[in-house]
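To: structure desk
From: M.T.
Subject: fold request, one chain
Message: Could you run this one when you get a chance? Sequence is below, nothing fancy, just the single chain.
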Amino acid sequence: MTSLSKRMWSGANPWTVASAAVFFCGVLVACSGETTLSDVESPDSGHSEDDLVIARVGDREIKVRDLHHKIKIQLPAMAGAGGASDISQKRQVLQQMLDQYCWVDVAEQAGWDQDQEFLAVLELSRKYILANHASNKSVYTKAEPTDEEIREYYEENPDEFRTVARCKAQQIVVPTREEADAARRRVLGGEDFTEVVKEVSIDRTASGGGWVGTVARGIAAKGYNNRLDINDIILSLGENGISEPVQLSNGWAVFRAYEFQAPEVQPLETVKHLIQETIYKKRSNELFARSLDEARARTGAAVDPVNFARYATTILGDVETIAFAAKETDPATKLVYYRALPERHPASVLAPQGRFMAGFVLAEDLKDFGQARQEFQKVIDNYPNDELVPSAQWMIENMERGIEGDPELTRIRELARKKRKGKGQ
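Reply: Done. Structure tokens follow.
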């Protein structure tokens, strides 16, 4: 199976998930009465052996290609299996298909395939599958890079595939600087580093010859997570180099570096799969965004913010409603939330605030003074003892007379600002 095919049928691809979600009904078209199950159960593979009938349910035939198609769509982990175990699993899947189609037959005989509830679920599932199938056809089948594109990327971005300098290292750790100097002189005088380690080192690595491990540029050495400077010291030594004593938290160390590997660009074949995935992801993301933008523009797809706010207010509590109103930037949508507060939560302590803020939005943002007057009057009539009543009365008397710059308006705006933020409740 190609890498693209694996992507198409992997668990991460929504087409697979969606197909499994509606397979309970057999096949979508079959349930509509336009054709039979065997007509659309699986595509023709082009191989005559795949047309072998391996099971029957009434007058319906299940062929080898039907079994293969179910596994490919719903059980992709089985697709590459083989041997006796694979045959046993496929036999179980085949029995599941038979049982499934028996239930389909029960439903069709009873006429349940025409139930409105079932048809609604079926249509929802069809759209879900078709949307993902469309994105696959429009995007994912076109995103696979060619070998030439992979090579071009490799040649243009060599640093992405360059290894870092690295070497192996040993250490001798002793309590004092004097002991470290002495150990270093012994090694420089010709004694074997490993033997000196075993004789004098106090570190737990002593039994293993003081082996630190592989040291690489920018990657902390084993046991030295906060000491990248030690990496630099070791990598600066050269082949079989011995360091000057280095102070540690538990004493002093002398390091030996060996088996250096210089930075190099990895061969194309080693990193080809990484480049392929990088290009594929970038291109598919771009294609997906462009195709979806074009479809949105062509169809005029858009959420109706005002009506969605009306829907939201049927679910939100009073505190949540005022919070949504405060976050909203569109005045008409904001108005929906504020008006919903006293209408849906009349006993809430926030109801007067909702009514007042509805009037304020109408007056300040929408310049609909007639409706604003009605909202302010309701504050006065319904909540006569509320602190907002004087402000509501002032707005009724003054909002239409050109009050920009009036100190009282400034005060009311500040009050409204605090109310939007949930303060002063």
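Reply (cont.): The chain has four domains: 3-129, 142-160+271-302, 163-261, 307-420. Let me know if you need anything else for the meeting.
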